[in-house]
Specification:
The protein is an alpha+beta fold. The protein contains two helices and eight strands. One of its GO terms (cellular component) is cytosol.
């Protein structure tokens, strides 16, 4: 795969301008993105929890999908209409309340029209994933 077509700062600016409903606050930060991988951090908030005190599935799915979008943008540039065509998640263990959630995404295959990747979601400083995601994105003709 090629080097990054957008830096972290460029991806952040693009997201603030084009996708503020997903990237307008300070709850998610892009720690790195290099055209092949990215690391996102979602700061802990009580809104992330479901009954029983675990991080909710919708929170984890949204973060994983967003991480795939970020790594894809870093690889192909500002293509706002790239969209998720498939997302599969396996919940592996409970996400701990009070801990940030990290999303480590990497592209497995980048084609002209489809990109396939995976995301490991981690809770706090634990090296053991709380969820594993595979995802496919459709890349429009530009």
């Amino acid at each position: 795969m090629a080097l990054a077509k957008m830096s972290v700062a460029e991806v952040e600016q693009f997201l603030r301008d084009e996708f503020p409903q997903a990237f307008s606050g300070d709850d998610i930060t892009i720690e790195s993105a290099d055209g092949q991988t990215c690391l996102l951090r979602q700061r802990f908030s009580e809104r992330m929890l479901r009954p029983g005190g675990t991080v909710s599935g919708p929170t984890l799915m949204a973060l994983a999908d967003f991480a795939m979008y970020v790594v894809l943008l870093s690889a192909i540039g500002p293509v706002g209409l790239a969209v998720t065509t498939n997302l599969n998640i396996n919940f592996l263990r409970k996400g701990q309340p009070g801990q940030d959630v990290l999303a480590e995404a990497r592209l497995l295959k980048l084609g002209k029209r489809l990109a396939v990747g995976e995301v490991n979601l981690l809770s706090g400083t634990s090296p053991d994933p709380i969820a594993h995601v595979t995802s496919t994105y459709s890349i429009p003709n530009v």
